[in-house]
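User: My collaborator and I are trying to settle a disagreement about how two of our proteins should look. Neither of us wants to argue from intuition anymore, so we agreed to look at predicted structures for both before our next call. Could you fold the first one, then the second, and keep them clearly separated?

Assistant: That sounds like a sensible way to settle it. I'll keep them separate. The first protein:
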Amino acid sequence: MNPKVTDYISSNIKWQKELEIIRNVLLELPLEEDIKWGIPAYIYKKKNIMGLSAFKNYCGLWFHHGCFLKDEINILINAQKDKTKGMRQMRFISVDEIDTDIVKQYVLEAMANSEAGLEVKPKKNTNPVVIPEELNIQFSKNEKLKYKFNEFTLSKQREFCEYILSAKREATKQSRIEKIIPMILNKIGLNDKYRNC
């Protein structure tokens, strides 16, 4: 039992019973328990299998490669159909909805699928990084900033640029520039806090 997961469950008072029931099923299996992206994560043979999480209106399991699960009783949800290819959710709104045998069956299938190498591999973005004019202006003023930016991977460079380009108002673009300059100088990616949990 990972104490960080215990803390996560204890802090989610509304869904505490439901999370504990699901967790007890997971702890019976040969899964490593950790915290990733701010939620409990369950790893099998060094591969992320699923996450356990609570939201305002429900709690549940997130199967990273759930699209490969048979789901014969049709309980899995693809919450972001246009964005998520592989992830599927099993949601609960009360203790009464949790059938521990079904949860265990789905988890065991997910583990078997992982061992079989079934996974959705993200497509690599090969498009060139489009640097916004506002950021180019900052680069011309600060050579160190440009140097540090170029040390990031292309995907992290793209995240910074898209963050600025997605702002509609000029004032928003400027506030975002002000936010990311210290991050770039300190070698902190825009979304690192989500990756390193």
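The second protein, kept apart from the first:
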Amino acid sequence: MRKIPAELCIRCKGYKYLCGLPSCPIMDRFRSVTLAISKIHNSEVIEGSTPPSIIIGERGYPKVSLLYNIPPGVQGESAKDYEDPRGWWGKKSLNEILSLRSQMISSILKKIDITNPYRLYEKEISLAGVSYKPVDSNAVSDKKDIEPKLRFDGIFIPRGPSVEVNDIRVQDNPKLSPQFEKLIFDDVKAESAILELYRNGEDYYRIITGLSLGLFGLKKNRKLVPTRWSITAVDQAIGKFLLSQVKQYPEINEIEVYYSSYLGNYFHVILFPSKYRSVWVEIWHPLSLWTRELIVSDLSENFWGEYDFLDGGYMASRLAVLEKLYERKRQAGVIIIREITSEYYAPVGNWHIRETTRRALEEKKIGTFNNLREAIKFVNSRLKAENQIMLEEVRSIKKLLTQTTIDLFLDKK
């Protein structure tokens, strides 16, 4: 989380809002966690519907933990709201998302062998994870103490209080789409299954969970995949396919600028006439998540899909851009600028990066230009850090400007 000075919290005591936030994150989390724990009348059984929400951890690999998330006492369709990235976007505030996640108990099964995903399949746990409706479940534990912490991660959605359990029982029938059921039984490579589900309109986040739970691939090779890895793997697999198609299309005709924002993250996307290439810039404001000073990071990707280093946020945003170019049957050069302000005081995973970039390209074109430098200057003037940064001097953008053909800097009349 964003680091707020302890002395400020002592002076504030949760009600003066001296940090500038609309409510106290410490008190909000305390109330939500307390509410979740208070709903467990029998400390040995946690009952409710998983939204669905399952995480495969990576610690201890190849013996990993499975986290089965249940909001105690919440059953049926109302449980869906506890993990619904697409439904949250633009509707739920950061506080509301954290509150929802705080109210779910992570039931932890430990030391699961990644090479035996069939154990979870036989108990219908993995099927519950890819159900398109919430699934009534319970978890049984002989532990008396629930660990009352909200855990954060930059890649996946936060999880609430946790307890180690002996067993997880799925109480009703998971609901799977016919296409999903077919591919679970088919003996095809995982990448082929991912692409087939994607092209048939399956929910993106359900595909990620399916890969994580070992439901795809050649049957003799199937294994559990830690959720952190499966998110990037799906972004890469689908991005690879989209890029192979996009590179065959004609270039766009003019320079376009798009914009959208959510959860204190502000995105500008510049598309310009060129063979595919991409630049990713992140601007971290003081007292945003990981820093007390203004930090700028960047990376670039060339026509062949080779990038400086793997960044989960970039892969999520890149996917959204490639989707739009594929839909338009055009290719372009790409500059994505993500500005992270102090409003984003707790990480909620990279889903919001993917979804906000999608919304920018769907709804909010804010300008067209004949000159790339002018487009970059226009975006610079809209930044919260306008007076502290020159985008033209950022390493990857500067390199792009010196390598791009000269006609992009000349007005076309």
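Some points you might bring to the call about the second protein. The mean pLDDT is 87. The two ends are 50 Å apart (CA to CA).
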